[in-house]
Amino acid sequence: MGKKIAVVLTYYFEDSEYTEPAKAFKEAGHELTVIEKEKGKTVKGKQGTAEVTVDASIDDVNSSDFDALLIPGGFSPDQLRADDRFVQFTKAFMTDKKPVFAICHGPQLLINAKALDGRKATGYTSIRVDMENAGADVVDKEVVVCQDQLVTSRTPDDIPAFNRESLALLEK
After folding, report:
1. Which 3 state secondary structure label does DSSP give 7?
2. How many Cα atoms within 13 Å fall on the side-chain side of residue 109?
3. CA within 20 to 30 Å of 94's CA: 15, 77, 100, 148, which one?
C-alpha cells in the first residue's frame, strides 16, 4: 500500500529535486501532497522547467496526516524556514520518527527545526557549516541515511541515490 508523502515547496525550488523524486515516488505507488502557504497557486522552479500546483495550505494540514516528508532544495527551504508553521510541521516528522527526505538546501528547514543535533547528514556545500553548527555530523557523500529516518543528499547529481534510499526507507 502506498504511503502519503507531504512535500513542502515554494517558489524557486530546484526543479529536478522535486520532479525526479516525485516521479519515483508516484511510480512506486505513493501519493504526494504539495504544501505551501496558499492552496491552488502555482509555484515555479528556479530553472524554469517545473511548475507545481499547490495541493494544500500549511494551515490545513497536520503531520499526522502523512507518512513521510520530502523537502526539495533550491531557494524554497530558505524561504519556508522563515515561517514557523513550516518549521513546526517539519519538526513534527522528526519528533514522530517519520521518514524525512531532504536534498541540497532541504536541510535548512531541519536546522531551524533544531532536528539535526546528533544526526549524520549531508547537504549542499554552502549549508554544511550551518548543519554542523546545528549539531549534525556532516559527511560529504551522495546520500546519507540516518537512524532509518532521515535521508539527505547534496545536489541534483545525487538524485538517483537519494531516490533509491528514500524508496527503500518507505518500504520498511
Report:
1. strand
2. 35
3. 15
Provide the annotated active-site residues. 104-105
In this structure, the strands spanning 143-146 and 100-103 are unpaired
Please tell me the total count of domains within the chain. Answer: 1
User: Which residue range(s) make up the domain with 56?
Assistant: 2-169
Integer Cα distance of 117 and 111 in angstroms = 9
Distance (Å, rounded) from C-alpha 10 to C-alpha 111? 18
pLDDT in tens, 12-22: 999 999 999 99
Mean pLDDT (whole number) for 103-110: 98
Q: Which residues pair with 137 in a beta bridge?
A: 120
Angle ∠(20,23,26) on CA atoms, nearest 5? 150
Residue 45 identity: G
Check residue 64 and report its DSSP letter: G
Share in percent of the chain as helix, strand, coil (round to 5): 40, 25, 35
In this structure, the chain runs to a length of: 172
Q: What is the CATH number of the domain that holds 49?
A: 3.40.50.880
Cα 67 to chain centroid, rounded: 13
5 contacts 30 by C-beta, under 8 angstroms: yes
